């Protein structure tokens, strides 16, 4: 076993779990960090990343730190807590002299509609408050790297899906409903193309970036499967479930009414531009740099996702 310590923050999350699996496959030394949970078979430290002392202790002796946590999907929470988490993690990495690998999303890109496809070089003039937070924290990482405080790399994921991923839009809007015999519901047009990242691919890709020193100081789009429409996604789910559903679109007037009484819908409102336009993320940079990396095709990934919930 390699003696270098790989610390995974948010190890019980959708992508953090996949990072742990890839590190185990490579026989690396692992420490999982969670607020309260324990990870079976892996040294686990419970820590609140909003607390600098707890964060520093959790990252002690780390060589690599994977920041894969998720905060509640709430703008105010993101604005208040993400910068604190990032500041503490950067400080902890600096003290441990650890490399930081950050799982990011694509919210900072804008204005909408985005280029087709959009690359890492796309303008970051987002129209959403959540996107502004993502821009702030990704800048914090790149500035810390440029200043020589830490070595850091950013892996940016499209909307992800995968086994047991309950916070994927493909589960909440489609799979969960269809498993209950209900028609899938869409927040936007069902005939426009989007790209999605498979969680197990994300985990493998983050470790791949981490282990190549030449990737640091850069932003990388993590690999995606082929662009696909919601109508095509429903066809693939129907094949697995042996059903014949079609997606219904929730009218925007209805969404606005729902947002008055349902905080979760209100939080989604500012991100609806992603559902109104073709939204294709380019992973060319990653694929050209790592040509031997095999990306999971959507048909295989969605089948594995559905089967994880069926069982």
Description of the molecule:
43% of the residues lie in helices and 14% in strands. It has 311 residues and is an alpha/beta fold. It has a domain at 2-160 and 198-224: Rossmann fold, CATH 3.40.50.720. Strand 1 (2-9), helix 1 (14-25) and strand 2 form a beta-alpha-beta unit. The two termini are 34 Å apart.
State the main characteristics.
311 residues, alpha/beta, 12 helices, Lipid_A_modif_metabolic_enz, Epimerase_deHydtase, NAD(P)-bd_dom_sf, Nucleoside-diphosphate-sugar epimerase
Name the structural class. alpha/beta
Question: What is the CATH architecture term of one domain?
Answer: 3-Layer(aba) Sandwich
Please, what is the CATH homologous superfamily of one domain? NAD(P)-binding Rossmann-like Domain
Report the C-alpha radius of gyration, rounded. Answer: 19 Å
The fold-level CATH name of one domain is: Rossmann fold
Give the N-to-C terminal Cα separation: 34 Å
Count of DSSP strands? 11
Strand content: 5-15%
Order of helices and strands: EHEEHEHEHEEHEEHEHEHHHHH
Question: Strand order, biggest sheet?
Answer: 3-2-1-4-5-6-10
Kindly summarize this structure in a few lines.
With 311 residues, the protein is of the alpha/beta class. 43% of the residues lie in helices and 14% in strands.
Strand and helix layout:
Layout: E1 2-9, H1 14-25, E2 28-34, E3 43-46, H2 52-58, E4 64-67, H3 75-96, E5 99-104, H4 129-146, E6 152-156, E7 160-161, H5 169-179, E8 185-186, E9 197-198, H6 199-210, E10 219-221, H7 230-241, E11 248-249, H8 252-261, H9 263-269, H10 273-276, H11 284-289, H12 298-310
Parallel strand pairs: 1-2, 1-4, 2-3, 4-5, 5-6, 6-10, 7-9, 8-11
């Amino acid at each position: 076993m390699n003696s270098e310590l790989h610390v995974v923050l948010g190890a019980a999350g959708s992508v953090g779990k996949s990072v742990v699996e890839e590190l185990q496959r490579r026989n690396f030394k692992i420490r999982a960090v969670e607020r309260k949970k324990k990870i079976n078979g892996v040294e686990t430290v419970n820590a609140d990343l909003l607390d600098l002392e707890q964060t520093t202790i959790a990252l002690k002796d780390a060589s690599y730190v994977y920041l894969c946590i998720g905060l509640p999907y709430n703008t105010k929470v993101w604005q208040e807590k993400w910068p604190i988490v990032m500041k503490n993690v950067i400080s902890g990495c600096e003290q441990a002299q650890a490399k930081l690998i950050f799982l990011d999303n694509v919210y900072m890109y804008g204005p909408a509609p985005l280029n087709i496809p959009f690359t890492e070089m796309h303008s970051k003039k987002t129209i959403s408050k959540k996107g502004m937070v993502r821009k702030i924290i990704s800048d914090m990482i790149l500035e810390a790297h440029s200043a020589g405080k830490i070595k850091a790399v950013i892996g940016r994921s499209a909307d992800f899906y995968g086994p047991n991923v309950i916070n994927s839009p493909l589960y909440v809007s489609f799979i969960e409903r269809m498993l209950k015999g209900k028609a899938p519901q869409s927040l936007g047009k069902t005939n426009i193309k989007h790209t999605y990242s498979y969680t197990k691919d994300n985990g493998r890709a983050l470790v791949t970036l981490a282990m190549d020193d030449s990737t640091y100081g850069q932003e990388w789009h993590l690999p995606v499967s082929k662009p696909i429409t919601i109508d095509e996604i429903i066809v693939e789910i129907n094949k697995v479930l042996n059903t014949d559903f079609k997606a219904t679109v929730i009218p925007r007037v209805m969404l606005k009414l729902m947002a008055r009484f349902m905080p979760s819908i209100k939080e989604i409102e500012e991100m609806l531009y992603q559902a109104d336009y073709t939204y294709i993320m380019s992973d060319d940079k990653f694929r050209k740099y790592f040509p031997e990396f095999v990306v999971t095709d959507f048909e295989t990934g969605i089948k594995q996702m559905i089967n994880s919930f069926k069982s």
